[in-house]
Amino acid sequence: MKFPILLAVIGSIHLPIFVISSRLIPDPSCKKSDPTTFRSDQMTVIISGYSEHRIPLLHSIAAAYSAAPTVAAVVLLWCNPSTSPQTLSHLTRNLSAAVLRSPSSSLNYRFFPWEIIKTKAVLICDDDIEPDPSSVSFAFAVWKSDPDRAVGFFARSHAYDVASRTWIYTMEKEKYSIILTKFMIVNFKHLEKYSCDKQYREARRIVEDMNNCEDILMNFVVAEENQKGPVMVGVKGGGIRDYGDARNDGHEDLREVGLSSRRGEHRKRRGECIREFHRVLGKMPLKYSYGKMVDDVGEQGLCEKGGKLVLCDQQDFR
């Protein structure tokens, strides 16, 4: 079956734009790639989009990533099955990204090894995070120094609660073990491991059932592979606009509208994911890192408060 294909021009690269009905495309199958053919000097950015309210913002975000010299291509993975082909076609106009429609709204597709990816480094990010190009390039440089680890700007932690005798999801100032998909650079081989390895099949079902925690599972995958913790990188003065953070003033139309919004008992649900992954995998591979790349482990997103952009971390974590 053939699908209509458009072309997007990003720098000197011509990328296919797949604007197709999710009812027509079958679930993609895993195909073993040849890593020797992948570029190592740049990375591919995969932005996960879902809310049509954020379409105007996507133009600014895609342009910000495209401006980074370390980015080979930007791909918008559209995960809302109810969005009409006409809306997506309109979205592609003047967008500095290729648009690939996901077969479903499953969060697992955020880590699928799509054939459009031609780089070893893959940056998985949300559709409400806008970094400056220098921050993107800095994070990529850190990843290149140890390409088997997950790298990002936003970190959390797992912990064992002695009182309840159970694993929990938390945030600590001195250490971390989880990089969030607000901004996460991983190796392409980890996409293959996450999506194609049978040992993670039941864990992927948990992601489906919870509609959450795909980032936690990817941290399980990476830590199991390299027996190391992730790397959090710091940007002086912020440098990352976080429109989706609930601590922003205004922008109600941009908050809590993503694939897995942060409503209700967010941390409790994330803790449940950690416990379930531990149960089905029979191990706890997550490893702690201690923030050697930053002054301390805190938020680095910029939120709007009182008409000014301030570090989100100047407010209480929730």
From TrEMBL:
Family matches, as SUPFAM superfamilies: Nucleotide-diphospho-sugar transferases
Q: Which organism is it from?
A: Rehmannia glutinosa (Chinese foxglove)
Q: Describe the family membership recorded for this protein in Swiss-Prot or TrEMBL.
A: Belongs to the glycosyltransferase 64 family.
- Identify the InterPro entries for this entry: GT64, GT64_dom, Nucleotide-diphossugar_trans
Q: What is the lineage of its organism?
A: Eukaryota, Viridiplantae, Streptophyta, Embryophyta, Tracheophyta
Top-level taxonomic group: Eukaryota
Among Gene3D superfamilies, the record links this protein to:
Spore Coat Polysaccharide Biosynthesis Protein SpsA, Chain A
Coiled-coil positions are none
What residues does the Glycosyl transferase domain cover? 44-295
What is the protein name for this chain?
Glycosyl transferase 64 domain-containing protein
Per UniProt, the keywords (alphabetical) are: Disulfide bond, Transferase
Q: Which PANTHER family match?
A: GLYCOSYLTRANSFERASE FAMILY PROTEIN 64 C3
